[in-house]
Every structure is written in C-alpha cells, then in structure tokens.
Write a structure and sequence with these properties.
Blueprint lengths: L10 E3 L2 E2 H18 L14 H22 L9 H24 L7 H7 L6 H13 L3 E4 L7 E4 L3
Antiparallel strand pairs: 1-2, 3-4
C-alpha cells in the first residue's frame, strides 16, 4: 500500500501512524519469511479503501484455501505471527532511523543505498526502499525517480 489515508494522520506513537504500523507489519512479515527461506509475493496497491481491501480479502481467502487443499496443509496455523510482529518492530525502528537521517540532512537527496549506509543498515536496502516508497506516497518525504537503484529521497521542507 502506498497511500493509506486522506487528510491529517492520527499518530499512534510520536511520528508513527497506523499506516506506518501496517507497512511495518508487511515488511516485517516479509523479512521473517525470507529469514526462514519461505517464498512470498508482494502486491502493491495505490490506495487503501473499502473496495480494494474487499477485493484483496476475497482473493486471498480463496487462494489460501485452494492452495492449502492442494498441498494438504492447515493454512490457518500461523507459527510465524510472533516472528512477524518482532520483525515489524524492527522495520518501524528502521523507518525512524530513515526519517531522522533525511531530516538531519535536509535539502540533500539520497538513494536507498546511501540511506542504508548513512544509518549503518547496509543489508536493509530493499526494506529502506519500500519504507521510502510509503513515506513518499504519504508526502512525508520527496522522491525523485522511482527505481530501486536510482530513486533519490529527501525530507520535505517544513
């Protein structure tokens, strides 16, 4: 999800909205699956609204039920939920590092790799890219060009 609300944001924690938590859970779950060598697929939608969420729920419930039947597993047993929550917390902490870094270097733009180096998280370039996509869609930062290796991000002037 890129754009998660209209109007002003309700902050769950200082500087963190409910949309940021959702993004954190998404990226954290992906990270937890990757660490356990589990494949995953990410679909990105431009906007979260009742229609799009309903379509995704219908798609996923059918896909999960069908696939589980085909491979003879209980699809609703979720051993990775706790790992996903821990990974989401790490993503939210990384988001804070990214926003602090961009604010501290206001006016300058950086690639995801440069941000990763700046926050000493060189192994988190893709996660930082996805965080920046989300922050840019929410107009919390500015983005130049949309490409994993070429996009440049900077803090928005206040």
């Amino acid at each position: 999800m890129l754009h998660d609300r209209n109007g002003s944001a309700f902050q769950v924690d200082p500087g963190t909205t409910s949309g940021d938590y959702l993004q954190g859970f998404l990226l954290g779950t992906r990270q937890a699956l990757w660490e356990k060598q589990r494949e995953s697929l990410t679909l990105t939608i431009d906007r979260v609204d009742a229609f799009h969420v309903g379509v995704l729920i219908a798609l996923y419930e059918r896909a999960v039920g069908l696939y589980a039947t085909l491979i003879n597993v209980n699809a609703y047993h979720q051993p990775g939920v706790e790992a996903g929550k821990k990974a989401a917390t790490a993503v939210l902490q990384l988001q804070t590092l990214v926003t602090d870094f961009l604010k501290k270097n206001g006016g300058k733009s950086f690639t995801s790799s440069e941000i990763a180096n700046g926050v000493k998280k060189e192994d988190q370039v893709e996660t930082i890219f996805r965080i920046c996509q989300h922050l840019a869609a929410m107009q919390q930062i500015s983005v130049e060009e949309k490409n994993l290796t070429k996009s440049r991000y900077r803090a928005n002037p206040k």
